[in-house]
């Protein structure tokens, strides 16, 4: 989703650089070769690396988006933003899906402690529950473009290696590794590193599929929050510890307040 892309791009400079970062800029193929060596050292096969990087070229549209959108999300007030996101059509669909997935949501809430209403809010706001825009860009090309660019090269080199690891693990094929303008993947828009770190195979098929598997999507989203300190049964409005945990989902206060409002409306508040 666009709003999360902007938040990710705005806060990206806070991430630490890997020790073996390839030099940014310069010849793109030489850069890919250097990243490929780092990926191989991280356990990615040469077959996956060579297939992913074959014929790859930078995507000028991704760089243009990156330059154009930086910081614009934060110009909107909470009231302005929420009025366009917390709307009856979305709430109605979310309520229907809560009923359809009631048993799944109850199981996830018991295991991870994250309320079903908040999970539904995130799922709806990020991709309209998988029915909306999850991005249409090849993730490898997108992230390689951003990694080659020197503004946040180290961050996106880490993401590029993580994207290759997703393919290596068999979670998604390279053809199915499609995402948004910062490389976010799936129905709740995980960056590749979060996909690797927090992804849960909740449907038990041996793979973490955040594009197609609703159980994997919802459990992985809950796992991200739990792993970062979510307190089961505690409030999560602004000013609470759980609201700060939600910062690991999105650093924007406006976006987090919108998540809370959506969850409260689902809960009848």
Show the helix and strand layout:
Elements: H1 2-11, H2 28-41, H3 46-53, H4 60-69, H5 78-85, H6 88-100, H7 102-112, H8 116-127, E1 137-138, H9 139-148, H10 153-169, E2 178-179, H11 192-198, H12 214-227, H13 241-245, H14 253-266
Antiparallel strand pairs: 1-2
Would you tell me the structural class of the helices and strands?
mainly alpha
Q: Helical segment tally?
A: 14
Query: How many runs of DSSP E, i.e. beta strands?
Result: 2
What percentage of the residues does DSSP assign to strands (E)?
Answer: under 5%
Helix content: 55-70%
Please describe the biggest sheet, giving its number of strands, its sense, and whether it closes into a barrel.
2 strands, antiparallel
Question: What keyword list fits this structure?
Answer:
two-stranded antiparallel sheet, 2 strands, 57% helix, mainly alpha, 269 residues
Explain what this protein looks like in three dimensions.
The protein has 269 residues and is mainly alpha-helical. It has 14 helices and two strands; from the N terminus they run H-H-H-H-H-H-H-H-E-H-H-E-H-H-H-H. A two-stranded antiparallel ribbon has the order 1-2. Helix 8 crosses helix 14 and helix 9 packs antiparallel against helix 10. The radius of gyration is 18 Å and the shape is globular.
How would you summarize this macromolecular structure in one to three sentences?
With 269 residues, the chain is mainly alpha-helical.
């Amino acid at each position: 989703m666009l709003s999360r892309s902007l938040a990710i791009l705005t806060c990206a400079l806070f991430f630490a650089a890997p020790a073996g970062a390839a030099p940014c800029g310069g010849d793109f193929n030489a850069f890919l070769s250097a990243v490929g060596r780092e990926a191989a050292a991280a356990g990615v096969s040469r077959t996956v690396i060579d297939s992913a990087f074959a014929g790859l070229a930078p995507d000028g549209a991704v760089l243009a988006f990156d330059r154009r959108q930086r910081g614009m999300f934060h110009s909107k007030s909470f009231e302005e933003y929420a009025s366009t996101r917390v709307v009856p059509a979305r709430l109605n669909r979310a309520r229907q899906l809560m009923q359809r997935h009631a048993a799944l949501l109850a199981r996830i809430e018991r295991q991870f402690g994250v309320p079903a209403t908040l999970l539904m809010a995130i799922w709806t706001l990020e991709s309209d529950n998988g029915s909306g825009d999850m991005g249409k860009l090849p993730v490898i090309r997108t992230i390689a473009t951003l990694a080659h660019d020197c503004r946040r090269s180290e961050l996106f080199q880490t993401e590029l290696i993580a994207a290759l690891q997703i393919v290596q693990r068999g979670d998604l094929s390279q053809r199915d590794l499609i995402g948004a303008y910062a490389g976010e993947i799936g129905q709740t828009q995980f960056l590749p590193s979060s996909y690797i770190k927090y992804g849960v195979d909740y449907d038990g098929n041996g793979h973490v599929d955040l594009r197609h598997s609703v159980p994997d999507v919802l459990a992985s989203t809950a796992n991200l929050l739990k792993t970062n300190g979510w307190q089961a049964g505690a409030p999560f409005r602004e000013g609470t510890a759980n609201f700060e945990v939600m910062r690991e989902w999105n650093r924007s206060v406006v976006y987090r307040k919108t998540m809370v409002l959506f969850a409260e409306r689902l809960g009848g508040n």
